[in-house]
Design a protein that fits this description.
The protein is an all-alpha fold. It is 67% helix and 0% strand.
């Protein structure tokens, strides 16, 4: 009883205390002996020295709040109260929290106990929580694989983890430049998967970039020779050619507009080769890639409503992280494990709701969200 009173006090500004305790008790009851496997209560020597240990009740409560807040976005106080009283909704929250608890070793075992910038604990919301777990699972599979057909996937996934850690600490604006870089590398990766012979040329131009930007700040002679023989002479920008001149080594790349040497040219090319689902994903990433410009160049200093970057960052991460995870398994010809298939299904389900909520974004709805949780 004392624990419950302390928990209510700790989380009083984030959730109804009685609802929290009721769900927490049911989650622990359903876990039974499994709780001891997920949250070991014995301390090893390292934990005795560092003081690192997990308190299951506290962490389960953070998961409950994340799931409940996820389902409560843009609802009125009355709608939220009705949900809290509804046994069907209570069971839904219990079951979804159980999913998250069982991902503990891949997700919140790595989270911090407090935030740098206080606010919503977005990393405990279902979509970013599952994205973090998926990144972690990727590195587990990558470490066990003896075949690494494409070396940039780990770089993309490391960027995704960095973005999620910024989200954890409400450093939301700082995530956009990383998102832009992640998208750019991901799109480049897609065309090199389609045209693997371009990888050698890509590495050559990457060395040109390093030499130009980090060393002499002059264009290398070898680069200038290639520039003079470029396939689209009307494209005059040396900078654009430095970044994307390697595309000239892809015979099937037939973009003849001024966007040939740009990410947009690659997207146009990929869309011509893709099915409708992939075209939609590329459209989404192109839209958000443009959205990131204001943050990268300092035009946008901060977002009025933190919930908006929460939506946008997760939209970007979902279309990159999920696709990289699936593509990597395809490339190494490894079946996705049943546990990871279940994780992907949970992610798809929760992202569908997030995407639906993002479609309802208005100033009035954002004001409602922050009024409800005052």
């Amino acid at each position: 009883m004392l624990n419950n009173d302390i928990i209510k006090n700790i989380f009083h500004s984030k959730i109804n205390g009685s609802f929290l305790i009721k769900i927490k008790n049911q989650v622990i009851k359903k876990l039974g002996p499994e709780l001891l496997k997920i949250f070991p209560f014995s301390l090893n020597e390292s934990q005795l020295v560092t003081g690192v240990n997990w308190t299951p009740e506290y962490d389960i409560c953070r998961m409950i709040i994340g799931v409940h807040r996820h389902h409560s976005i843009f609802l009125t106080k009355e709608e939220i109260r009705n949900n809290q009283r509804d046994p069907e909704y209570q069971n839904q929250v219990i079951n979804e929290v159980l999913e998250k608890v069982r991902l503990h070793q891949h997700a919140n075992a790595f989270f911090h106990k407090s935030q740098i910038i206080c606010g919503d604990e977005f990393l405990y919301f279902p979509v970013p929580y599952e994205l973090f777990a998926l990144c972690n699972r990727f590195f587990g599979v990558f470490a066990q694989s003896t075949v690494h057909p494409y070396s940039y996937f780990p770089v993309i996934m490391r960027s995704a983890i960095s973005i999620l850690l910024l989200l954890e600490n409400n450093l939301l604006n700082d995530a956009y430049p990383l998102c832009r870089g992640m998208i750019e590398l991901y799109i480049r990766s897609l065309i090199m998967i389609k045209h693997p012979k371009a990888l050698e040329s890509y590495e050559q131009f990457r060395q040109f970039e390093i030499e130009q930007s980090c060393c002499s700040q002059k264009y290398p002679d070898a680069f200038l020779e290639l520039y003079e023989r470029r396939k689209l002479p009307s494209a005059k920008s040396k900078v654009n050619y430095l970044h994307y001149g390697w595309l000239d080594n892809i015979d099937a790349y037939n973009i003849t507009t001024q966007g040939r040497y740009s990410l947009y040219g690659i997207i146009e090319h990929l869309q011509s080769l893709s099915d409708n689902e992939m075209v939609e994903s590329l459209d989404t990433l192109e839209f958000f890639y443009k959205e990131c410009h204001g943050f990268v160049h300092g035009s946008v200093v901060c977002a009025t409503y933190p919930l908006l970057p929460y939506f946008e960052i997760n939209e970007m991460l979902y279309h990159v992280v999920r696709n990289v995870f699936v593509q990597f398994h395809r490339d190494i010809q490894k079946e996705i494990s049943p546990e990871d298939k279940e994780l992907l299904q949970c992610l798809d389900r929760d992202f569908e709701k997030l995407h639906m909520q993002y479609g309802k974004r208005t100033t009035d709805n954002f004001e409602l969200y922050y009024e409800v949780w005052k």
